[in-house]
Amino acid sequence: MKIKDIMTREVVTVSPHSNVRLVASLLGEKSIGAVPVLDETGVLVGIITESDLFIKEKGIPFSVVKIPHIFNQWVEPRKLAAIYKEIDAHKASDVMSSPVITISPDMEVGEAASLMFNNQISRLPVVENNELVGIVSRSDIIKLMANQ
What we know:
This protein has 148 residues and is α+β, with helices and mostly antiparallel strands. It has one domain (3-147): CBS-domain (Roll). The protein has helices at 20-29, 70-73, 80-88, 92-95, 109-119, 138-147, and strands at residues 34-38, 44-49, 55-56, 60-61, 123-128, 131-137. The strands form three sheets. The protein has a two-stranded antiparallel sheet with strand order 1-2. Strands 3-4 form a two-stranded antiparallel ribbon. A two-stranded antiparallel sheet has the order 5-6.
């Protein structure tokens, strides 16, 4: 089976200049785990996952890198204003992962699953002719397995 048979075609995206608060809102409101980042010309330049909002590179909390580690401060309401101010100071380009591993819509599902496993990632943007045409997640593959 091919990726084009299971991928999500309507993909929520953001620009590199999008505010991180907007990214967090989209992830929550749409119940999605990631948003691809497209430049002004529609080219995929990065991806932001839920994990990117909490942990950046090699397990270092954002409080050390760019954004406060929200869970460590969330329980103290007096710190919320500072957290929101810090989040508002950052753009998608500050937290996105780049370069992005992408796949073709004609790739076999098994090959994509191996790519996810070997790279320890949960989602793969699907690109055709330099255009984002979909996204596939581990849960899409698991659903396929369950229905076979």
